[in-house]
Design brief:
- 47% of the residues lie in helices and 15% in strands.
- It is built from 13 helices and nine strands.
- Strands 1-9-8-2-5-3-4 form a seven-stranded mixed sheet, with helices on both faces. It has a two-stranded antiparallel ribbon with strand order 6-7.
- Strand 3, helix 8 and strand 4 form a beta-alpha-beta unit.
């Protein structure tokens, strides 16, 4: 594994298209020599996406490649300088630039709510650099990450006027962070977290009862912020950034919360449908579902911790 990681780190120094093509070629060459590929995801994606055996096996195998790609791009974000990273994203496409330009021009607080899909760290950085450069930036984290993950996230300091990371489990820092964010900040959060991350709300995902962490609804109301869902579809030579329907939160009623949770569930499904193999939460999908649903679908085989170590969930 150390040798593989060293190769990945070397590839990370190359321009985007070169490194992704090289990684794909090496991954294909290595496939016959690996004992298991795809993290045992076949029964998971077969059930929730209603796929046949062959399609499920293909998706699980492709997910394996996307996982390695994400590792490489984390290292690229650390090892390449600002000029090189700007060159890497020159072909990035945005689904609705007028939408994000309008939100940015308002000067209001924005919660940029991405899902764990594609090379999402690069996508988030691109949106902040392209549309919100010079704004205050607050990054929400649900835990203490690996050092390399933190270094990668720190690259956002280069495009922000002021930068702060808030571990959401640290209640003592929360009030100060909200004061910081009220002054026109961009808050970077994640939309597709299971209920174990706190503030659970009931919804459905892929046709089954589920629960998601929905702390951002209270934060959006507190900050009077616009929540802008987004995802990243990663291709061999570029990334496509897709925005969802923005929303605001003006009430605190249980019915309003249920409405938001259902809308977030549908948004996650729409994003995942773009490229299901690129959703990095498949290995943890069982965490979204109650026991009666989990019993009908075995979890992915022994890989969730390995993936969780570097996706920065």
């Amino acid at each position: 594994m150390d040798v593989v990681l060293q190769i990945i780190k070397l590839l990370a120094r190359l321009p985007l298209a070169w490194r992704r093509r090289a990684l794909r070629a090496l991954w294909r060459v290595a496939l016959p020599f690996r004992k298991s590929v795809g993290f045992g995801l076949e029964p998971v994606v077969a059930r929730y996406l209603k796929l046949g055996t062959r399609e499920a096996r293909h998706l699980a195998r492709e997910h394996d490649y996307q996982d390695v790609l994400l590792i490489m791009e984390w290292h690229a974000s650390i090892r390449r300088n600002q000029r090189q990273l700007a060159h890497d994203v020159r072909n990035t496409r945005v689904s609705d630039p007028a939408l994000v330009e309008r939100i940015a021009a308002s000067g209001d607080v924005v919660i940029l709510a991405a899902i764990h899909m594609g090379v999402f760290p690069i996508g988030i950085t691109y949106v902040v650099w392209k549309y919100f450069a010079g704004r205050r930036l607050l990054v929400l984290r649900a835990r203490d990450d690996l050092e390399e993950n933190n270094v990668a996230m720190d690259r956002l300091r280069e495009v922000a006027s002021e930068f702060r990371i808030l571990n959401t489990r640290n209640e003592a820092d929360f009030v100060d962070a909200m004061r910081f964010a009220r002054k026109g900040a961009v808050v970077v959060s994640l939309l597709d977290l299971p209920e174990t991350y706190g503030s659970p709300a009931d919804t459905t995902l892929f046709g089954e009862p589920a629960a998601i962490a929905l702390g951002l609804d209270a934060m959006a109301r507190m900050l009077k912020a616009v929540v802008l869902p987004m995802t990243v579809h990663s291709l061999p030579t570029r990334d496509d950034i897709v925005f969802g329907q923005p929303f605001e939160v003006s009430q605190t009623s249980a019915e309003e919360r249920r409405t938001i949770a259902r809308a977030v569930g549908r948004q996650i499904e729409r994003f995942v449908s773009i490229a299901p193999e690129q959703w990095h939460m498949w290995t943890r999908s069982h965490e979204f579902y109650p026991d009666r649903v989990r019993m009908r679908t075995p979890p992915a085989v022994g890989a969730a911790q390995e993936v969780d170590a570097h996706v920065g969930a």
